[in-house]
């Protein structure tokens, strides 16, 4: 079996992975596809080394958060042969850039009929994070104005749909290549950041969701309504702003989704079945081309998700 190993802060594809032991309340899954995320780049650069030491992570496979696959050793909840998808723990693992994993039942859900493995691997983190950001953190209500920064990216294409389904009036911000897809998915208004920088966007918003992780509260504040909420994708970079919430009417929401949740993933899968959600574009690479897959994360204006075919 093959896996991507992090060696000296670089990725290497190796053979000879042993099948992991199945823990309590876990199932063993043959990974069919796994996503490639910006977090994986941070891991390769050493950005998570301290956290991994604190949590006692020793497995050489350090990258990969989402996956789709087939249960090899199942349970009453997920019998052997069930098609599943999920999002493993951000810090504790197991990481998904390997061909077999044992994963807690609470992190996964059944793949809905009609969804392929490639689409399923790029769906859980994006969908669950977007749902939590808009419904639970920002508490978006029908009729509110929502700005989604990075609206054509892997999370953005889902976030636009979720905001639209809630009944919000959505504005999407992305590069020129992303304008059409944002319109098609439900943005009432689209903005090309190359022509209209963030500071020049007209109007104010009840919620600004920054999926680009580029901006701080000071950048977003002029765009917020008097009681508006800024939700950044990276809460670590905006920790001071979150701490200042008691002293101002405009707030910074704390978005931290560090693992899959069966109930939420099942709810979102149901929305795919009914047609309320589309999975969005997926760029697929074979495992042997993992370097090319990781390079796509560095491409400005990237649309949708990147996934590795693990078998």
From TrEMBL:
Q: Which PROSITE patterns match?
A: QOR_ZETA_CRYSTAL (PS01162)
Query: Could you tell me which PANTHER family the record lists for this protein?
Result: ALCOHOL DEHYDROGENASE RELATED, ZINC-BINDING OXIDOREDUCTASE
Boundaries of every Enoyl reductase (ER) domain copy: 6-308
SUPFAM superfamilies with a match to the protein in the record: GroES-like, NAD(P)-binding Rossmann-fold domains
User: What InterPro entries does its record include?
Assistant: ADH-like_N, ER, GroES-like_sf, NAD(P)-bd_dom_sf, Quin_OxRdtase/zeta-crystal_CS, YIM1/Zinc_Alcohol_DH_Fams
Pfam families, sorted: ADH_N, ADH_zinc_N_2
Q: Know the name of this protein? A: NAD(P)-dependent alcohol dehydrogenase
Q: What is the lineage of its organism?
A: Bacteria, Pseudomonadati, Pseudomonadota, Alphaproteobacteria, Rhodobacterales
UniProt cross-references to CDD domains, sorted A to Z: MDR1
Q: Which organism is it from?
A: Lutimaribacter marinistellae
